Structures are given as C-alpha cells and as structure tokens.
Amino acid sequence: MQSTITGELTNAEDVLTILNPRTGEPVGSLSVAGTDDVAGAVAAARAAQPGWAATPPGERGKLLREAARALDTAAAGLAELNAQETGRPLDEALAGIAAGVSTLEQYAELGPVHRGHSLRGNALAADYTVAEPRGVAVLLTPWNDPVAVACGLIGAALVTGNSAIHKPSERCPHLGKLLGEVVAPVFPPNVLVTLTGGADVGTLLTQQPDVDMFAHVGSSATGDRIARAAVLTGAYVIRENGGNDPLVVDADVDPGWAAEQAAIGAFSNSGQICTSVERIYVHRSIAEPFCHALAGQARDRNTEHPLAPLVDTRMRDTVHRHVAEALQLGARAIEGGTVPVGPGAFYPATVLVDCADTMDVMAEETFGPVAPVRVVDSFEEGLALAAAGRYGLAATVLTGSIAHAQQAVAALPVGTVKVNEVFGGAPGGAAQPRGESGHGFGYGPELLDEFTRVKVVHIAAPPAREAAPPAHETDGAAS
C-alpha cells in the first residue's frame, strides 16, 4: 500500500480544489480517499502495528530522528505549499516546519525512556507497570500550523509503538500529502499512512471498529462528533479544540505595553491560532490609553506591515459576520472592520470597543484578527467574566499584583494560565484543555501517556516445595 492514499479521480464531488488565499488562483486539485481506501488503510495499519510495537524503543527513536532529518531536507518545498494553500508567510511556514523537526527529535529522545512505575508491595514480590501502545491511532490535524502539529502527534504515536493514519486538513491537502511522502518511507510499510479528504473521510474513519484511538486538533464541533462516534466503537479520544481565550488587563500595568501584548495575541497569524486572544477585559482606569494604543497597533499592521490573508474566503465570511453583528448591536470599530476590495481572503486587524458578552465576537471563537474590548470596573469583574463561557483552552492576565495573579490561577477554568505574556512558555508545557476546548494532553512528555495504556504486573515467588524424605528412611519403612 502507498504511504499516501488519495483515491482515484472520478467526479467533481471527489476532488479537493484549493485556491491561493492571497490571489484567489488555483493551487491544484487532489482526489479524496473513498470508502475502500479508508477501510484498506485501517486494515493495513492494523496488520503493521504488532511488528512495529515489537521493534525496540531505541530503534523506533532512531527512525524518528531519520524522519526529522528527511523533514528538514524537504522544508523549502513544504513551506512553499504551506504559503500557497493557507497564505502563511514563508518565514513563518519555515518556522513551523523547524518546530516540527524539533518535535520529532524531542519524541525520539523521550520515547525510549518512557517508563512505567514500581509499586510498593510484598518485599518478596515485584510489582510494576508496563506502558503498551494502544494500537491503530487516527491523527486529524489542522491547517493553521499544519506541520508542527502533525509532527507532534505522529512523533508521539509512532515512538510508543502505535501505527498511525494521518488525515491532514482539507484546507492544505497538498501539504499533508507531501508530508506523508517525506516522512512515511522512513518507517516500515503502513506504519504511517496518509489519507486526503474532507469531513466525509473523517466520518468514515470514526466508523471503523479497528481504530483504537483518535487524536484531533481542530474545531470543537468536529471534536464533539468524534467523541460521540467513539462511544460506539470504544476508541480512546484526545482532542485540542477551539478556544475563546480571554485577556484581563489590570489597572496597574502600562497601557502601551498591555496593548502590544493584546495585539500580539489577537493579530499573530492573522488571529488564526487556537490560543489567540479572542476577548479583552480592560480596567476602566486605563481603558482610554489602552484602546488608543491598541488601535495604533492595528493601524500599523493594516498600513506598514499588512497581515497575511485568512485561510480562505469562507473563514473571512465567518470573521466578518461576527464583526458586522457586533457593530449592529452597538459596538464601534476604532480600526478595521471592513472587507477589503481585491482578490484573496484578506481581512484587516480590527479593534472593537463597547462590546457586550452576548455578541458572537465575544462569546464564540472568531478565529480572525479581531480584538473586541469590554471595559470593567475592577479586576475581580474582569476575572469573573473571563472565567465564564463554554471553552477552557487558555487565558492571559496582565497584572503587577502577585495577589491578582494567584487569584487568576485559582479562578480560571482553563488548561493554561499565562501571566504577563500572551505567548511563550517552556518546552514540553503540556496542558489539559477543558469544556468545549477538548480533553487530554496535547503536547509534551504527557502525550506519550495518552498514546499508551498501562498494564500492572505482579510477580511473586511460588511456595517452596516440600523436601522428599531421605532414601534410607523410605527403605526402612518398606521392610
């Protein structure tokens, strides 16, 4: 079986056609995997998995390092496809691929030392745990950082002895296909298989009884469908899904610096990051200079350093619908807020003030370069509003008060709390999203635990055998 399965071209409904979001021109078309392709991929991965699981962990790690080198060699071509399909600037695409290389190398090191635990029991017995692969893992990855995210899941899945079926986002299928062609040949046949397609292919995968787990990074709606389907098949599910991450700005911080942090959080990658700042609560005492500085940050991005486009016009329509609804309900745009004329899927950095929490731009994941602001009268009010909502991915607090920082850590029901820096953090900082943002660890050493299940072993010595009587005693008894 090929490492990448795209099916056969049959009719228009079976083809993914991608348009360049900068120009609106076609990037290309790919056929999608059909029902037989999906079933065949699962069967092939199932057949390959026992042999891969029996491969020594050190050898699996060695092959993962080879995959990292292959990825590094192919970085230029992958970055170019990333830029063409998603509009991501070439330097950022290259940075994402470099992150993918580093992630594969990280799991190549962590995998062979992933270990169980000894358990305290009888002094004359041995009790310990063994981590075993779950089996066949389906990896469903997004378009906004496609190589880095895919490498994290692929690395953790393979180094722990699972076989993997990777379905990249239908918004970057050429990139996903090429990634499979670069990485999969390093491993034994069918240990890693790539399937191209849209939601129909994902649905077919959730119906396969021989899939043991799903790892999904993407929208909350899709993650919820996967989790519901897995109830019927018994597959294990981890997912990092949408967010509506708040930023709370305290009264005692410099408003210009706070505006810079807000702009980084709201406008980086054109707002297309799971942990983007999606709603802002600023203390009334610094609200005016903060909003003025934030509008300036947005204006600079709209004139001096224009943002990259959104991934496609469908995404832009969603973003603008949220903005237009907010404006209709009483919000004001002090920068941006209009769809630009011309080709592509561009949207300006936008700052909205006088926002209410009932507006979609505050309550939902907008996933675009929009910074909606609500003024609050106290840090406690901002914190309470930030803690409300269905999502639980991450949150940021800007404050000079250690007491307020500690309050935020205790009160915010999210997987990651960031204090005084919207992005950053140490390597391996895995977190568990909550609510509609997902379930399970998505990164770091803990991801190896997600891709394995634990077996407890208890070994005790058998009782000593009774000694046989001496031979002369036996002879005497007989006489």
UniProtKB/TrEMBL annotation:
InterPro entries: Ald_DH/histidinol_DH, Ald_DH_C, Ald_DH_N, Aldehyde_DH_dom. The keyword Protease does not apply. It comes from the Bacteria. One of its GO terms (molecular function) is oxidoreductase activity, acting on the aldehyde or oxo group of donors, NAD or NADP as acceptor. Pfam families: Aldedh. Residues 15-457 form the Aldehyde dehydrogenase domain. Keywords: Oxidoreductase. Coiled coil: none annotated. This is Aldehyde dehydrogenase. It comes from Arthrobacter globiformis (strain ATCC 8010 / DSM 20124 / JCM 1332 / NBRC 12137 / NCIMB 8907 / NRRL B-2979 / 168). The lineage of its organism: Bacteria, Bacillati, Actinomycetota, Actinomycetes, Micrococcales.
